[in-house]
Amino acid sequence: MTHRVFLVEDHPITREGIRSLIRSAPDLEVVGEASSGPDAIDLLSAAKPDLVLADIAIDGSDGIELTKQIRSMYPEVKILVVSAYPERVYAERAVRAGAMGYVAKQEASGILLEAIRTVLDGRLHLSDAVRDRVVGSYLSAGAGAESSVGDLTDRELEVFRYFGQGLTTSQVAEAMMLSPKTVETHRVHIKQKLGIETTNEFVQRATLWTAQNEV
Fold first, then answer.
1. Total number of domains in the chain
2. What would the 3-class secondary structure string for 142-190 be?
3. CA atoms of 158 and 154, how far apart (whole Å)
4. Which CATH number do you get for residue 73?
5. Is 47 left (phi over 0), alpha (psi -120 to 50) or beta?
6. CA-based end-to-end distance of the chain
7. Domain final residue pick, 95, 112, 135
8. Ramachandran sector of residue 206 (left: φ over 0; alpha: ψ -120 to 50; beta: rest)
9. CA 103, CA 125: separation in Å to the nearest integer?
10. Rounded to an integer, what distance in angstroms lies between the CA atom of residue 21 and that of residue 15?
11. How does pLDDT run along the chain (215 residues), one tens digit per residue?
12. Structural domain of residue 173, as residue ranges?
């Protein structure tokens, strides 16, 4: 299966490099490009990407605001932020805006491809240091989310934890000896109880909660 990637990057040389890297991967294809936030919004509907790769510093907008817009308009499209800006400053902002990961431009090209595949697989991509800080931030935000998780049944909590470990629906079904349809039903109930609207938000919440509570 080939996954569709849309690039948002206002530096032509950088965009060309990322395009070439993605095209070198047999499981990925570039289906559109934009150099600004408004152009990206105009083109996304026709491009129908699985993932948007967006810089933070772009013409006509910034990557954080663009992430929020895409999340609102196309909730099932996954977003990965790639930037030269410090991860320690912007990664948490990107995740809170709806991104599924953050990669610094100075990272090796292999890290970017790994991050793309991780996010396409429905898992969060962050460095260990940033993941710990994001978890701490969620923990310090208050007990509301935690008490909601406490409302889950034992079975639902187990499903939530498995998804937080990065497992796919079929892998969760195999681990729990359930049908994929039953796992999906549990996920729907969990989303309802936690007030979660999108799959991306579900994965973020599950990943962060599991990182916080795993022994």
1. 2
2. CCHHHHHHCCCCHHHHHHHHHHHCCCCHHHHHHHHCCCHHHHHHHHHHH
3. 6
4. 3.40.50.2300
5. alpha
6. 36
7. 135
8. alpha
9. 8
10. 10
11. 899 999 999 999 999 999 999 999 999 999 999 999 999 999 999 999 999 999 988 876 678 889 999 988 998 899 999 988 777 777 888 888 889 999 988 777 889 999 999 999 988 888 776 776 666 665 555 444 454 787 888 889 889 989 988 888 999 999 999 999 999 999 999 999 988 888 888 988 888 888 766 54
12. 142-213
Judgement on whether residues 125 and 25 belong to the same structural domain of the protein: yes
Torsion over CA: 150, 156, 161, 164 (sign): negative
Quickly count: other Cβ atoms within 10 Å of residue 49's Cβ. Answer: 22
